[in-house]
Amino acid sequence: MSIYDHIELHQGDITRLEVDAIVNAANSSLLGGGGVDGAIHRGAGPQLLAECRTLGGCPTGEAKATGGYDLPARWVVHTVGPIWKGGHKNEAALLASCYRNSLTRAAELGATTIAFPAISTGVYRYPKEDAANIALTEIVAFLERPSSIAKVYLVCFDAESLEVYRKELASRTDTT
Ligand code: ADP
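Above: inputs. Below: predicted complex with adenosine-5'-diphosphate.
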């Protein structure tokens, strides 16, 4: 059994997934936005925004959990990805800490299944290949240590983003 057996790619809407936790690519206010953030708030209903208002925002790279309310997911882990500014503003370390901290929050809650969108690759414009590489590196490192997390879904809205993950996964599993 390979560590990669615990990672699954999925094309579709993350808000439809019946997993313990879905990760939201939020902005630092945690008060909603466009993209996946808007979809999660629409799916969860107004109680999610009410809980988010009590959290006092979230710094880039960190993560905070809430309930999932009307979503099939029990929890939402809100993380704030870096805005891509060319690569010399600590973007890679910040994106890595988004994945690490989101997994840590979910494991603290006892989640066994978690789904991630491609954090920062939408309006924050992080290059998709680099973002996929960081996501997989952090997820594999986390899965190598004992925790409640048994399955990590990488969810892409579009086929092109999914293909980026597929290539990144293939390049890793071919050599091991
Ligand atoms: P960011 O501000 O972190 O870049 P975005 O929401 O703009 O966040 O985009 C992050 C990624 O999530 C993009 O690849 C986008 O296509 C994808 N996305 C948008 N809506 C959904 C959804 N409902 N389910 C899964 N992925 C989504």
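The mean pLDDT is 97.
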